[in-house]
Amino acid sequence: MNEIYQAIEQLDLGPWVRDMLFAAAALAAAAVVFTVGLTIAGILVWVERRVAGRVQSRIGPNRVGPFGFLQWLADGLKLIMKEDLVPECADKPLYRIAPYVVMIGVFGAFAAVPFGQALIAADLNVGILYIMAITSLSAVGILMSGWASNNKWSLLGGIRSAAQIVSYEVPVGLGVLSVVLLAGTLQFNGTSEAPGIVAQQGGWPWQWYVFHNPFGLVAFVVYFTAALAEGNRTPFDLPEAESELVAGFNTEYSGMRFAGFFLAEFANVFLMSAVATALFFGGWQIPGVPAEAVRDSAGLQLLGLVVFIAKAGFGCFLVVWIRWTYPRLRIDQLMGVCYRYLVPMGFVALFGNALYLLLVPAGSTLDTAIHLVTFAAVAMGVVWFFWRVTFHIRHVGDKPDFDLLARGRVGPFDPNAQHRAWGAHRRRLARGN
Hints:
The protein is mainly α. The chain has 2 domains: 84-359, no CATH class; 398-432, no CATH class. Helix content is 68%, strand content 0%. The chain has helices at residues 2-10, 15-55, 71-81, 92-107, 127-135, 137-148, 152-183, 197-200, 214-230, 242-245, 255-280, 291-295, 298-323, 331-359, 365-395, 401-406, 417-432. The chain is globular. The N and C termini lie far apart (80 Å).
């Protein structure tokens, strides 16, 4: 966008013509950012439903398009055709505006996401601060929806969401501050003279800030956990807990206004993963390729985009995996996690990184050794974890618990399996007596 504005400034046109061109360029950029955000959110809906199907030993969407990929488009058409109902006693202006406030808070942040060396709508000198500020609008929109719906469940969900987002802004900020301290800038890409957060990292894993030192890893854990809570994702989805609040703040919504909340939630999943990728995992940096070479090659720019999407996509998969693995916390446990654990860990990470910068010279042999040791330790832990997961899949797989009681290999879709298993178990108990 900066290049476009500079090109418009150089045109020999009247001031009012330049102003119109500026406005047209801004509207076009906003339309592109909004379209990209909507597309990503829709695809993530399909991804979550497929992963949920796999976790629950079923197929998931598989009718519309190959592997059910176009299911998100079919869902969008369905919601467009649904009637938009407004409760009779609702505060109608606030009720109608609330979904758009939430969407602005999420989709507006995509303008500062560094998809590539040049693939960023606005490389602001306060990029990460802008993202943290504009995403806070979501709390305002959710609180508006809860108040305006004139529904006790919606009001409770809105109040919960406001308290949750305000509380978890603190650990998110502490995690981000650790990276800002290491990079010395708030800008993501920067220039060749003043590189930003992404440009200062490298393509190899041990050059990422998450492995810069052990405190960088702590900062990532704090940021990721707190970002899950800010996005109302399980196990922190108390503002829309269906077992307690029907559907929380969006109980009274239908049609496209309901879809607005839905799309904003999934767009926020990608946003938090993309920001984590840029801050901690090298962003668009390609292993073995310097940032200067990426800047001068369109092919490497596209490859950097693929690398960025792959890293952020893995983060989204991790969010979905957590969603279908952990149970929901209670409200007291939710606030306890924030103030008892994440905030102290955030301060430990912040002051630990500050001491590291003071005591360990940048680029020294000790600095490089700490990078490599941190990366090796985390890599060994990840390999062990996935080995344990594959071990249990091989030895248990989709077999239900009653299959283990029967000590036999009974298929998961056999309707008589449980009856036979418990019958065999009772016969063994009778023989034992």
